[in-house]
Specification:
This protein has three helices and eight strands, in the order αββββββββαα. Strand 4 and strand 5 form a beta hairpin. Helix 2 crosses helix 3. The radius of gyration is 16 Å and the shape is globular.
Length: 154
């Protein structure tokens, strides 16, 4: 499949690596309310959103799942597939109808192991996403459950 390279932000991966990854993409669609994955489940795929919105959520004992972040166009859904033990740390649900590119995690990991430059690029891209998501999760949880104003930036 020759998907447009622009679906991965240009600063995320070098052009050659973006194209190699996009060559593996499979187009998928999710209706509103569809669960892409559940917290604690096996992380064997990941997605880049073409259209729509996906909510990342976290189970909270005795309450509804807390929405941590909403993702949209060109954003990566899922990072747990890259790091052992390959278990989802959050859940994900289509907040609107979603069209996305889906990737087989095991195949991408194999490519990363076979080509150190490609693997380093993917790890840096996904690591940056992880860092932003952890910050967003902390801020959102403080907003939901911390003392008034504790989730704000200083």
């Amino acid at each position: 499949m020759n998907a447009p390279v622009t679906t991965i932000p240009p600063r995320a991966l070098p052009a050659e690596h973006r194209q190699r990854l996009m060559d593996l993409a499979r187009e998928v669609a999710f209706p509103i309310g569809a669960r892409l994955f559940e917290e604690g489940g096996r992380a064997d795929h990941f997605w880049i959103i073409r259209t729509g919105t996906v909510d990342l959520d976290m189970r909270v004992p005795g309450r509804r799942a807390a929405v941590i972040e909403s993702l949209g166009h060109d954003e990566l859904v899922g990072w747990s597939w890259l790091y052992a033990p390959y278990i989802w740390h959050l859940g994900a649900e289509a907040a609107t109808p979603v069209r996305a590119y889906e990737f087989d995690a095991a195949l991408v990991r194999t490519m990363c192991e076979a080509d150190a430059d490609f693997g380093r690029s993917v790890a840096q891209w996904v690591g940056g996403v992880v860092a932003r998501r952890l910050h967003a999760t902390r801020t959102r949880l403080l907003d939901l459950y911390g003392p008034y104003g504790s989730g704000g930036l200083r």
